[in-house]
Design brief:
Helices cover about 40% and strands about 15% of the residues. It has an 11-stranded mixed β-sheet, sandwiched between helices. The protein has a domain of about 240 residues: Amidase signature (AS) domain (Amidase signature (AS) enzymes, Alpha-Beta Complex). By secondary structure, it is an alpha/beta fold. It is globular, with a radius of gyration of 21 Å.
Length: about 475
């Protein structure tokens, strides 16, 4: 029996495995065949694991014993900065090209305990520094909707794998929008959850106060299913949220007040994207949701603050890649020369640019001037969002914006780094504030003759992911 697995949601795949419509091996074989057919064109995967069918066979035995759980037998693609013990992990960089992980990330342990099957590692911008997946040291991933365009970044490989049917779901990491932005460009659903809900243990760090692992899927329910497996407190991550802080009851509200900070995005957003956004708002309003214009006075400084905080944290985190302890080593005339040559050849241009910027920001003469001020602005931005969500006043339940100001741009189109950074303008606030945000497809726009997907972003208060899922499902019903 031939089954078109790419048309099935995660829930349908789970049901199919449970009712024995197909086996985990057949499911994995189906996805391996799709990868074999498409990956040479899309370049979503850097490596397909050689033990996929062995993993699937173990899942089948578990299902046969009646010991299966939600994700048992479900194939998952993984961004190349999430550690799996004994597997290569490079973070898209030459400096880690031959490195094998010494331990597994907490999310990997949780997924393995659930019986998931790991398909392989997906391409990414080097050390998650980028918005297009053009900054990988190994290859440029293409957008399945138009192969001349980028899939977004830095989790572009994960988004492209899902969009092209090479995985039912994938994990990415989000530091300034790196799950939601590629999800928008590729027509997928992407979740950046509340900071601390998903353990960062075993994620190769970019910005420690910003990074968050999360899922990319075809539907909101797919993303919700994976999130509920990987979330939770972790003693190996001191920033993870204690379990007793999670809401005991999920909100049963069916309609919400949606805040729209129009002053933040009416200039600089592609006209077709804005028209699609307004159309989606009207359709949400027709379903009983209330649309309300709001002000976020300091959010306009968000991108500036982010590009001070993130390089500073990146400079600190990447100091460990010195050519001595692990990774690429280039022999020099002395120890200092070893450092210079190893890091010079191992790191790409964008990584070197951000390390230099971050080191300058953290230098003795400029720490307070730049890093201290950026963190003060960060607090102001958090206060703006808290005030907007203030339930004791006239607050809103969620805040909506387009996910990105434009649809996917062409490969090589944004050679100017500042132009590239602007594509993160709507996604960065959730990382700066630690709030959860979801990107959901809101239809398509026509750009230079190509029909391209665009995303609708919803941001909610801390630990209110249930609101994101509820509104996201409403948007899916519209589109």
């Amino acid at each position: 029996m031939s089954i078109e697995f790419t048309t099935l949601s995660l829930a349908e795949l789970v049901e199919g495995l449970s009712s024995k419509d197909f086996s985990a091996r057949e499911l994995s074989e189906g996805y391996l065949k799709i990868i074999d057919d498409k990956n040479s064109d899309v370049d979503a995967y850097l490596e397909v694991f050689d033990d996929v069918l062995r993993q699937a066979d173990k899942a089948d035995k578990r299902l046969k014993r009646g010991e299966g759980s939600t994700l048992t037998g479900i194939p998952i693609a993984l961004k190349d900065n999430i550690l799996i013990e004994g597997k290569h992990v490079s973070a898209g960089s030459k400096i880690l090209e031959k490195y094998k992980a010494a331990y597994s990330a907490t999310v990997i342990r949780k997924l393995k305990d659930a019986g998931a099957v790991f398909l392989g590692r997906t391409n990414m911008d080097e050390f998650a520094m980028g918005s297009s997946t053009e900054h990988s040291a190994f290859t440029i991933t293409k957008n399945p909707h138009d192969m001349t365009r980028v899939p977004g970044g830095s989790s572009g490989g994960s988004a492209a794998a899902v969009a092209s049917g090479m995985a039912p779901v994938a994990l990415g990491s989000d530091t300034g929008g790196s799950i939601r932005q590629p999800a928008s460009f590729c027509g997928c659903v992407g979740l950046k959850s509340t900071y601390g809900t998903v353990s960062r243990h075993g994620l190769i760090a970019l910005g420690s106060s910003l990074d968050q692992i999360g899922p990319i899927g075809r539907t909101v329910s797919d993303v919700e299913l994976v999130f509920n497996v990987i979330r939770g407190e972790d003693p190996l991550d001191s920033t993870s949220i204690p379990n007793d802080r999670y809401p005991r009851e999920v909100s049963q509200d069916t309609t919400y007040t949606i805040g729209v900070p129009r002053g933040f995005f009416e200039r600089g957003v592609d006209r077709e994207v804005l028209l699609q956004f307004d159309k989606t708002l009207k359709e949400l309003e027709s379903k009983g949701h209330t649309i309300k214009d709001i002000e976020l006075p300091n959010v306009k400084y968000c991108l500036s603050a982010y590009y001070i905080i993130m390089p500073a944290e990146a400079s600190t985190n990447l100091a460990r890649f010195d050519g001595v302890r692990y990774g690429l080593h280039v022999e020099g005339e002395n120890l200092f020369d070893d450092y210079v040559k190893s890091r010079g050849r191992g790191f790409g241009k964008e990584v070197r640019r951000r390390i230099l910027l971050g080191t300058y920001i953290l230098s003795a003469g400029y720490y307070d001037t730049y890093y201290g001020k950026a963190n003060a602005v960060r607090r102001l931005i958090k206060d703006d969002f808290n005030q907007a969500f203030d339930v004791s006043g006239d607050g809103v339940d969620v805040i909506a914006t387009p996910t990105t100001p434009t649809p996917a741009f062409g490969i090589g189109e944004k050679s100017d780094p500042l132009s590239m950074y602007l594509s993160d303008i709507f996604t960065v606030p959730a990382n700066i504030t630690g709030l959860p945000a979801l990107s959901v497809p809101m239809g398509t726009v026509l750009d230079k003759g190509a029909t391209l997907p665009v995303g609708f972003q919803i941001t909610a208060p801390i630990l209110c992911e249930d609101r994101l899922f509820a509104i996201g499902k409403s948007i899916e019903q519209i589109h």
